[in-house]
Design a protein that fits this description.
Elements lengths: L7 H6 L13 H15 L6 H16 L2 E5 L6 H15 L5 E5 L2 H23 L5 E3 L9 H6 L4 H4 L2 H10 L9 H18 L13 H5 L21 H10 L3 E5 H9 L10 E4 L5 H8 L2 E3 L1 H12 L5 H20 L11 H22 L6 H22 L4 E8 L3 E8 L3 H9 L3 E6 L9 H6 L26 E5 L6 H4 E5 L13 H14 L3 E4 L3 H14 L5 E3 L5 H10 L4 E4 L16 E4 L10 H12 L4 H18 L10 E5 L3 H4 L3 H5 L6 E3 L2 H14 L1
Parallel strand pairs: 1-9, 1-10, 2-4, 2-5, 3-4, 5-9, 11-16, 11-17, 12-14, 12-15, 13-14, 15-16
Antiparallel strand pairs: 6-8, 7-8
Length: about 700
């Protein structure tokens, strides 16, 4: 890395007056020019926070100091990090940069809108257009082995339970005209993708269900690899990776970044730097990628799949019987963390580990071992072996627990106690890394988020110039935290109503007083409400109550239809309201008068008996910290920041966020939680909030 060529203030002003050697513009000057050109192309206007972010990202690349950058909604964050990234790629200062996002939706936005605008500007300014690629996980691409080597009878491919589910969704359709026809359409589309030289990305596929897609895609573990697969020469996944290896900017997701870190850099092409967008979701997504589950149903399905390839009847019987053994053991085990190695469920894990090890050996030594179906069955059994072995170990670095699913019954789950070590050693330790989001400061500071990804407070620097020089074997990870603000005037645009006179939330569900308050607020807003509830039951109860109290208003509730359809209707029908749970707290973007009111029924703490939360809190306490604040309160602060952030999405937006949980005012941790939310004008006076909503409704 080279030293920074200009200061952040010069780049941020867009008025740099110096140039590099030989009169060549500096990277900072070119970044400012690229931002100006890109913003002009989309008809936008200069935003100081965007310029500050771009300068800070450039400094991170130049100095190797990691960056945590909070950039509020409306900052223009994507262009803010794309401009300095693409400029350094165009100049040859970096060979390849990986950008990761939490969602496929943002990947699509970057690919279809932000990156093309930024590339146009970079080409105009530097004369070079870096290549870019979108890279997704294996199951997002069609598998030609599944497409071409499956049965011609589509209904025969589909498990009976899936046919039943398909008929329930489309009761008048025969199986072959429902799910079977869907699979046929997907296969035809995949062949068209081959002819077109395309990648068979799921996002480009004809309309389909998850069950249909499963018939033309393959899990990572079951992939035979290009060298052994009969269709390896035409593999869409391999082609997507070839495209990524030829690109300088690779856009992927947090889960694939985690997989790359866990498996020694095999999922992503080599790169020098990482930009992590939507970084507030990073630890949750990495945790998810590093987690696994084991249920009697999984063991039974995998066992039946391997059955036809096993010559040893006793071994086959033992494999299938191990599913029943696990089921009985799970029923005897409390729904909590498993820590006692003498519990029957641990013996069940060990039994499954033992039999699956022998099955994998048998499948690998049989006469049919080269058959693709046999190798895939062996891979599925090997995955069960790996999970059982991990669970049986009861490692201090893992949390193993028993959970109960409403439809499928009990199962065992395992997740890492923390992902901080993985992120520190395999991401920050190997690449200059930028984390950015509208929500990184929890309780008004970056410390919590930094610690969750393995960055220590004693490594924090106040500016990149103050960072001590690093040697090749230096294990320190210096990092800088900055908040570039937001173009919104939250104090003037929004009111935070804290209903301190509401009753304390209890275990009996949403109270009558809260239901009355919800109805009164929705009435005052004339609908136009996004209701964020702590549970599906609370959302449904509130929807029923408000519909009864306000029959002229349209109240949509999560579960009434597909969430995407409900969101579309909420946006299109201005006076409608939408009530829902966790999936609505983040990501939904409803600017304008459609959303005048956001209601939060209670502080979104994780369940106090959730085993992973309990284990993480205990680990923090044993290390001398405050487990509740570090885990539960941080979780709630993040969701409160994201949920309340749904209100103000444009400079012209106005409205009220109403939190109907008095603990946000009365509890000792209340100030910590409030400091994580947008700085709106705050009141506990109900009539003030009602009056403001009525005035807004009258102006529409």
């Amino acid at each position: 890395m080279t030293a920074p060529e200009t200061g952040a203030a010069t780049a941020a002003s867009g008025a740099a007056t110096t140039s590099g050697a030989g009169g060549r513009p500096t990277a900072a000057e070119q970044t400012a020019a690229v931002l100006a050109a890109a913003v002009a192309e989309i008809g936008g206007h200069e935003r100081p926070g965007q310029l500050e972010l771009a300068a800070a990202v450039g400094d991170a690349f130049d100095t190797g100091v990691h960056l945590l950058a909070q950039a509020g909604t409306g900052t223009g964050k994507s262009l803010g990090y794309l401009a300095p990234t693409l400029v350094r790629l165009a100049r040859g200062d970096l060979d390849r940069v990986v950008v990761t996002t939490a969602t496929l939706a943002l990947q699509g936005q970057l690919a279809g809108k932000d990156i093309p605008h930024a590339l146009d500007a970079v080409e105009a300014v530097t004369g070079r257009r870096p290549r870019h690629a979108i890279l997704k996980g294996r199951t997002n691409y069609a598998c030609l082995l599944k497409v071409r080597d499956g049965s011609d009878d589509q209904a025969a491919l589909i498990p009976a339970s899936e046919l039943v589910a398909s008929l329930q969704e489309s009761p008048r359709a025969a199986p072959e005209s429902a799910l079977g026809a869907e699979v046929l359409a997907l296969r035809e589309w995949a062949e068209e993708q081959v002819d077109a030289g395309a990648l068979a990305d799921r996002d480009d596929a004809p309309s389909h269900t998850d069950r249909g897609w499963q018939q033309v895609s393959i899990p990572v573990r079951e992939c035979l690899g290009t060298q052994r697969c009969p269709q390896g020469g035409s593999c869409f996944v391999e082609k997507s990776r070839e495209v990524a290896r030829a690109a300088e900017l690779v856009v992927t997701n947090h889960a694939l970044l985690a997989i790359d870190a866990m498996h020694g850099g095999t999922a992503l092409p080599e790169h020098q730097a990482v930009v992590i967008d939507e970084a507030h979701e990073l630890t949750a997504r990495v945790t998810g990628a590093a987690s696994a589950e084991l249920s009697p149903g999984i063991v039974d399905r995998v066992g039946r799949r391997a059955l036809g390839w096993l010559d040893d009847d006793d071994l086959a019987t033992e494999l299938l019987t191990s599913a029943d053994t696990l089921k009985d053991a799970l029923e005897e085990t409390p729904l909590e963390r498993v820590e006692d190695a003498n519990l029957p469920v641990v013996a069940a894990f060990e039994a499954i580990r033992s039999v699956t090890r022998r099955v994998v050996t048998a499948l690998g030594s049989g006469t049919d071992k080269n058959e693709p179906e046999c190798r895939q069955a062996a891979a599925a059994v090997k995955e069960v072996f790996d999970v059982a072995e991990r669970m049986a170990a009861l490692s201090e670095h893992d949390v193993v627990w028993v959970a109960d699913r409403e439809r499928s019954g009990r199962e065992a789950r395992v997740a890492p106690l923390t992902v901080a070590g993985l992120m520190r050693s395999r991401v920050f330790g190997e690449h200059t890394t930028v984390l950015t989001s509208a929500t990184l400061k929890l309780g008004g500071d970056f410390t919590g988020v930094a610690a969750s990804v393995g960055l220590r407070e004693d490594e924090r620097v106040r500016d990149t110039a103050a960072a001590p020089p690093r040697t090749e074997d230096d294990e320190r990870q210096p990092w800088l935290g900055i908040d570039v603000g937001s173009p919104f005037s939250y104090e003037k645009q929004g009111i935070l109503y804290l209903a301190r006179r509401m009753p304390q939330p209890g275990r009996d569900g949403i109270s009558e007083a809260v239901l009355e308050e919800v109805a009164e607020l929705v009435w005052a807003a004339g609908g136009r409400t996004l209701g964020l509830f702590s549970s599906r039951r609370a959302a449904e109860t509130a929807a029923v109550h408000v519909r009864k109290q306000l029959p002229k208003l349209k109240i949509l509730c999560q579960g009434d239809a597909q969430l995407s359809e409900l969101t579309r209707r909420f946006v299109a029908e201005e006076e409608s309201s939408l009530f829902g749970t966790l999936s609505l707290w983040q990501g939904i973007d409803v600017p304008g008068s459609t959303c005048r009111l956001v209601i939060i029924d209670r502080i979104p703490f994780p369940r106090p008996d959730e085993p992973l939360t309990v284990a993480r809190q205990r680990a923090v306490a044993e290390a001398g910290g405050n487990g509740f604040m570090a885990v539960a309160a941080s979780h709630a602060a993040l969701l409160l920041a994201q949920g309340s952030g749904r209100l103000i999405r444009r400079v012209s937006d106005r409205g009220v966020v109403a939190v109907l949980d008095p603990r946000l005012v009365t509890a000792r941790y209340g100030s910590y939680l409030r400091s994580s939310m947008p700085p709106m004008w705050t009141t506990s006076d109900r009539e003030t909030a009602i009056g403001a909503l009525r005035r807004l409704d009258e102006t529409d």
